[in-house]
Amino acid sequence: MKKILILTACIGALCAAAPSFGTDLAGQPVKVKAAPLPVAAPIIDWSGYYMGANGGWGTSHNCWDFNGITSEGCHNSTGGTVGGQIGYRWQIFNMVYGLEGQGNWADFRGSNVSTAFPTDTVGTTTDAFGLLTGHIGYAFNAVLLYGKGGAAVTSNTYYVNSVATGTELGKNNDVRWGGVLGAGAEVSLTPNWSAGVEYNHLFMQRSNISFPAALGADRAHQDVDLITARLNYKFGWPFAR
């Protein structure tokens, strides 16, 4: 009987204390964790040395004039190209300046039947070209838009074949210098890697081509259009400005 009375008294005391204990809990301040501060997007710095590879398509527009006077017609030599580039860029605020050297193997081939000598086919093959250019561009953080201009050189083979048999009647080679203008867009993929696409137009000087005496000589004019995809690796650690 005594144990029942003690248990009843304890339960009563506990029930009486519960409201005040709940009040004490309600009065405690609630700790709320602060939201994390937003992280600023990294700013890409395009400055530094880089090298890479490129590949794509090109066409060489060639017009021949017999002895520099009589037109033999024009043809487009088209085909693929692959090569590499190396350069350096400086970034000042959003402006980006650079110098680049590029060398490519090419396989641009084309021909036409001579309008002056219908029994002959005249053809041009461009097997390599090089560019040495200056760049100026504007960086939208990870996207770089730029223009370029400078010197160009092409390596070419010229031939005259018989229309009837396809037999080679004459052949000559030359290395021709000229100028180039172009534009491109490049996107930073990682701090060191970037990829882009580029268009270039080459304005090549006219060239005199000599063949065996029976065929005489021609004066050839050449323009080249190139579209290439590029992949570059920039050396060194990138630094946010």
TrEMBL record:
Compartment list: Cell outer membrane
Ranges of residues in domain Outer membrane protein beta-barrel: 44-235
InterPro entries given in the database record: Beta-barrel_OMP, OMP-like, OMP/PagP_B-barrel
Keyword Signal: yes
Main localization category: membrane
Biological source species: Bradyrhizobium diazoefficiens
Keywords tagged on the record: Cell outer membrane, Membrane, Signal
Membrane keyword on record: yes
GO cellular component, one term: cell outer membrane
Protein name: Outer membrane protein beta-barrel domain-containing protein
Signal peptide positions on this chain: 1-22
Similarity annotation: Belongs to the Omp25/RopB family.
PANTHER family assigned to the protein according to its UniProt record, in alphabetical order: BLL7405 PROTEIN
